[in-house]
Specification:
- There is one protein chain.
- By secondary structure, the protein is α+β, with helices and mostly antiparallel strands.
- The chain has 2 domains: 95 residues, no CATH class; 88 residues, no CATH class.
- The protein contains 4 helices and 8 strands.
- The strands form 2 sheets. It has a 6-stranded antiparallel beta sheet, with no helix packed on it. Strands 7-8 form a two-stranded parallel sheet.
- A hairpin with a 2-residue loop joins strand 3 and strand 4.
């Protein structure tokens, strides 16, 4: 059962990657500095590596809670400056950030799976029930009704908005397994995480452990 659950988890991530659903939302976000100053920014990256930008400049929240412009990248983490977003001048007008390029990125992270490839033919050929957990955060409440996920995961002939014949989770694995793997997702109610979104992020040194 433990190995079966592991297979389900791997397959779910692969399917979402194929739909390009791992990319950060393109919708602008509102940020608030500790003194109440507000500015608009964007999420960048995907589920493996994420960062934020304001007007094209990469930004990071420092230890005191201030959003500051990033000076560069140290491996998987952006390096904070002392210049505060929305308060100090932007880098192209700020002598303290002279020649700072836009769109600085931390190094990419990769998922390495050295486990054996499961042989589906030697397992069951009936329906596999796949649990799907929906988690939101105190600072990022969910926006999608459960019916949306029911269609994405289980609806035969599902088409993602703006595409044709993209197929559902079930369609995808039924096709590539030549009918030998028939998943049906059991979708749980939304669960609120006890901590804010960034508590679990890679930018938090203990983020992965918290998950």
């Amino acid at each position: 059962m433990k190995n079966t659950n592991r297979i389900f988890l791997i397959l779910t991530f692969l399917y979402l990657y194929c739909l390009r659903a791992d990319l950060a939302s393109p919708a602008p976000m509102n940020f608030i500095q500790p003194d109440g100053t507000k500015f608009t920014g964007l999420n960048r990256g995907n589920h493996l590596q994420g960062w934020r930008e304001a007007n094209g400049w990469s930004i990071i929240q420092n230890e005191d809670g201030w959003w500051v412009y990033a000076l560069g990248a140290d491996s998987h983490t952006l390096i904070p400056s002392t210049q505060k977003v929305g308060i100090d001048l932007e880098p192209d007008q700020n002598p303290a950030l002279n020649n700072l390029p836009r769109h600085l990125k931390p190094e990419l992270r990769f998922l390495l799976d050295e486990g054996p490839v499961p042989d589906i033919r030697n397992t069951r050929t009936d329906t596999f029930f796949v649990p799907l957990l929906l988690v939101d955060f105190p600072d990022y409440a969910y926006e999608y009704p459960m019916d949306t996920f029911e269609d994405i995961m289980n609806l035969a002939g599902y088409a993602y908005p703006g595409t044709e014949n993209s197929g559902s989770f079930r369609d995808f694995y039924q096709e590539i397994s030549y009918g030998e793997f028939l998943p049906h997702s059991i979708i749980a109610e939304w669960v609120r995480a006890p901590n804010p979104h960034d508590y679990y992020a890679y930018s938090n040194p203990d983020g992965y452990a918290h998950v």
